[in-house]
Amino acid sequence: MSGIRHLPTTVVRGLLALLIAAGALVGSPGPTQARVASTFAAISEPGPDCHPYGAPPLNLADEIRRGGLTLRPFRSVPLPADPTWRENPFRDVNWVFRYQSLRFVLPLIRKWHRTGDGWYLRRAVFLVRDWIDDNPRSTPASKAAWSDHATAWRALVLACVVQAVPGATWARQALAVHGRLLTSSAFYRWDGNHALGQDRGLIAAGCTLGRRAWVRLATWRLSRLVVRSVDPQGVTNEQAVYYQYYNYLGYKSAADQLRRCGAPVPATLARIQKMPEFLAHATLPDGTYAMLGDTVRTRAGAIAGTPAQFAATAGGAGPRPRERFASYRAAGFAFGRTGWGERRPFRDEAMYSLRFGPGRRYHGHAEHGSLTLYAYGQQLIEDSGTFTLNPGRWRAHGVGRAAHNVVTVDGVAYRDQATAPLGRVRSGDTRDDLSILDRGHAGVAMRRRVLFSRTGGYLVVEDRLSSRTSRTYRQLWHLDAASRPVVDGRTVRTTRTRGNLRIIQLAVGPRMRVIQGRTSPIQGWVSSTLSQRRAAPVIEGVARGKTVRFLTLLVPTRGPNDPVRVTNLRLTASGWSFDLDVAGVREHVWATASDSAITRRSAVGPPRALAGASRGGPRGT
User: Fold this and answer.
1) N or C, fewer C-beta in 10 Å, the chain?
2) Strands 585-591, 596-600: parallel, antiparallel or unpaired by DSSP?
3) What is the pLDDT of residue 603?
4) Burial category of 484 from C-beta neighbours within 10 Å (exposed 0-12, middle 13-18, buried 19 and up)
5) Which H or E run contains 381?
6) Partner residues linked to 522 by β-bridges
7) What span, in angstroms and rounded, lies between the C-alpha atoms of 333 and 235?
8) 300 near 312, Cβ under 8 Å?
């Protein structure tokens, strides 16, 4: 064995396969086995299919050796020495998918390559072969065993096993079974990230087994999938920020697979080059993603050489985004911010998001008109999160209207397939001005207008609601769990040490209250991690009538007691004007039906259309 380092890699692979087939690496490891494994690791790194995006971290291999298994975001559980493959400790569909995909085997193979310790390879081989033995297509141990998504990921795992143990005939046969299933038109999803995963699994199977027809089929499907799934602005149709990143990595991985396989990359994949720019605008100044759609609180991906890298690293690397405002009309997202760290610390910049557009699908929520707001290092107006992917009341709440920063209507169900088109968009150096019309509630017209100060980082939100009969409307603002709000008449203020919010009602005096941790009906929760939740305050303003108008001011402040003062308030049927002083800085805000402006107080006053309007509202807070 001392001369093994001088043998060609193909010979070493063959020798290793013979040793495994003969059982030399199945029993207790000995010096010869360790030398063979160590030598092979020095010659050949694990193949690309052994460390795809989404694979668990390397340290999971050591946890498995200790008898545990962590499938993030779930906590660690014991991994049986001989699994039944019916395990489901959390009664959770997402955990079962991760388990049945066998992705957790990949760190074992990578660890074997890195250390030469045959235990890791033996355990990987046992788990994969045991799954195959226990889950034939005709009578699988688990109903989830052959789901479309788990099958796709498992094909990648099997390709890794075949690359690591070329002589394992059983692994090649199992990969062939997966590949044939993935070619089936009836099994193929044709849309969404599941179809993308199936394309990647089929490419891996085709390349590993030399089935070029499989690769050509996957390439053809991939070329059409990207056109259906990613619009010309580079936004996926899955309606969730996390899945924008997940799909970007998936398409990029598929292109890399094809190049390694010597196959052409479809020209249509060029449109994924715009996907990182959306991710940059969807990244909060603290380097996490805005929790829109099925998105948990997670660090943003620093995609090298793109604006997404700049946003994720607080300007540490990558090109600065060209704009502070971005509107994605077809997909239904708008983002704006005070800056990219030019005039204030990067983490202190203010940022908002607004949702509109097509009806709910895939990983989207019924969040038309919903806003979020971040400033001074804190998420001030929060999306309440995903909660769970399991069917049931918590899933229904998480994707429903009441979990978002919108106005709900008592007694009228929301049609989440309705569209909410973006109307006027005006953006300049001092303000963004957007409006949407939402007819998701039958018989109710809901118009939301949003004005954002590029200098002050505050929002003016006008909600106009009308119906033929008198209705009860509930305006909802979801806050972070640690915000500690205090209600004082028309005003709400949070009282954390740093990074606070003032909510001021300007047009009406709705009944204001705080709801937190309610379970019947569900309200007052935030879920920043899948299948976890904690009680968090929701500010509810209630008004009733055939026509209702909320005019709400959302003002970020650094400290809980920073002075905020509204003066010279004037309201008309089509607009408003007022002066806003925040910590000694005064701005004048005015809006008509067709225009708006935010200026320093030294600028001229509002246009004549507002002259003589009614006066009133808060004089100070």
Assistant:
1) N
2) antiparallel
3) 42
4) middle
5) strand 378-381
6) 519
7) 9
8) yes
Nearest to 131, CA basis, from 92, 86, 76: 86
What is the spatial distance between Cα 484 and Cα 504, in angstroms, rounded to a whole number? Answer: 16
For residues 276 and 248, is the Cβ–Cβ distance under 8 A?
A: yes
State the amino acid at position 441 in one-letter form: H
Q: What share of the chain is helix, strand, coil (3-state, %, to 5)?
A: 35, 25, 40
In a 13 Å sphere around the CA of 62, the CA atoms on its Cβ side amount to: 5
Whole-angstrom Cα distance, residue 452 to residue 433? Answer: 7
| Burial zone of 564 (CB within 10 Å; 0-12 exposed, 13-18 middle, 19+ buried) | buried
With H, G, I as helix, E, B as strand and everything else as coil, classify residue 327.
strand
- Sequence-separated (6 or more) residues with CB below 8 Å from residue 5: 39, 42, 43
Residue 257 CA: distances (Å) to CA of 60, 102, 171, 197, 295: 25, 20, 20, 12, 27
Beta pairing partners, 515? 538
Q: How far is Cα 150 from Cα 101, in angstroms, rounded to an integer? A: 4
Task: State the pLDDT at residue 508.
Answer: 78
Whether the ω angle into residue 56 lies within 30 degrees of 0, i.e. cis, is no
Q: For residue range 184-193, list pLDDT tens digits in order.
A: 999 999 999 9
Provide the pLDDT for residue 261.
Answer: 93
Element (H, E) at 254: helix 241-260
Task: Determine the distance from the C-alpha atom of residue 117 to the mean position of all C-alpha atoms in its chain, rounded to a whole number.
Answer: 37
Task: Decide if 597 contacts 590 (C-beta within 8 A).
Answer: yes
Sign of the dihedral through C-alpha 515, 519, 523, 524:
positive
Half-sphere exposure of 589 (CA within 13 A, CB side): 31
Residue 45, pLDDT score: 55
Residue 99 structure tokens: 């388990």
Distance between CA atoms of residues 490 and 509, nearest Å: 6
Measured in residues, the chain has a length of 621
Question: Rounded to an integer, what distance in angstroms lies between the CA atom of residue 272 and that of residue 236?
Answer: 9
In angstroms, rounded to a whole number, what is the distance separating the alpha carbons of residues 502 and 487?
Answer: 10
Give the burial string for 53-75 (b: 16+ CB within 10 Å, else e). ebbbeeebbebbeeeebbbeebe
Task: Map tokens 């029993």 to a residue.
Answer: 27
Q: pLDDT tens across 43-96, in order?
A: 345 666 677 777 788 899 999 999 999 999 899 999 999 999 999 999 999 999
CA terminus-to-terminus distance, the chain: 82
Query: Residue 619, CB half-sphere, CA atoms under 13 Å: how many?
Result: 2
Q: What is the 3-state secondary structure (H, E, C) of 497-549?
A: CCCEEEEEECCCCCEEEEECCEECCEECEEECCCCCCEECCEEEEEEEEEEEE
Output the pLDDT for position 6.
37
Angle (deg, nearest 10), helices 241-260 and 192-209: 20
Find where tokens 């600028």 sit: 603
DSSP E strands in 277-345: the ranges are: 325-328, 333-337
Q: Is 591 exposed, middle or buried (0-12, 13-18, 19+ CB in 10 A)?
A: buried
The predicted pLDDT at position 46 comes to 61
pLDDT at 40: 37
Q: What is the model's pTM?
A: 0.89
Q: Is the CB of residue 104 less than 8 Å from the CB of residue 131?
A: no
Positions in the chain short of pLDDT 70: 1-49, 602-621
What whole-number distance in Å separates Cα of residue 358 and Cα of residue 339?
A: 29
Helix 169-183 with 118-134: angle, nearest 10 deg: 50
Q: Under DSSP, is residue 251 helix (H, G, I), strand (E, B) or coil?
A: helix
Return the structure tokens found at 600: 């320093």
